[in-house]
Amino acid sequence: MSKHRPHRSSRSASWGHTLPAAKSRMLKRNLLFLALTAGATATLALCSKAQAAGGAYVVDDGAINAPGECNVDVWYQSTRHQGSSHNSVIAPACTFSQLPWVQLGAAVQRQQADDHGETQLSPQIKVQLLNREDLGLQLALAGSAHWALNRHHSFDGGDLTLPLTFSASDRLRLNLNAGWTHAYDEGEQNHRWTWGTGVEYDLMPSLTLIAERYGQRGGEQGWQAGPRLHVGQHLDLDLIVGQHLSEDRDRWLTTGATLRF
Fold this sequence. Notes:
Organism: Pseudomonas idahonensis
Structural class: mainly beta
Protein name: MetA-pathway of phenol degradation
Largest sheet: 12 strands, antiparallel, barrel
CATH topology: Porin
Number of domains: 1
Shape: globular
Order of helices and strands: HHEEEEEEEEEEEE
Number of strands: 12
Helix content: 10-25%
CATH class: Mainly Beta
CATH architecture: Beta Barrel
């Protein structure tokens, strides 16, 4: 090690001057959320099993939980240019032994922007249509509905998606999505076709790199990418950057975790 290495306090001061105050606060919140999530769930890691895909990523895969297995996804997302805008999500899902081809779940999302908050509940179902390990193919049908809990017009829309996963090798998986969405945008009903492509590459047993590109016909488009750290075989930790490719091209940073039991 070099004996001229700067003191810790000097590096911290330099870091603090590099980032604007709003971006520094956003980064600290994401790192704190990741640290708290890891600490709270590490004690459960010995009794659960982690898998790839899912979490805060938009492009779904064709797999479901094994019969009798559940998972909980949690993540926190902040926009880069608007420190006051953020989303928090918790999404449990289970596959029961009596229905080994069906995964049932729900997502609770809290959106906060400009001192205005909204909570949304989204029940979810995912049915596996094909699972051919010899061909490396998995196909499913996923659906969800969305209700805003603190709004007069509570029904916010729904989605249907066909996610297909092709395992090109032991390390590389490709995800393709085609679907349809129905949404209420400020009182206007919109129906759009949706699409998405994603890639997962296992760089090493403890690290997977994930990237995706997705969009709606005539609507929102964006991309996300980041590393996924596998803590043993039981817990996944995500750090994701993303950007909209339409309108104001907002960027965001997401931290999250997936726990299976």
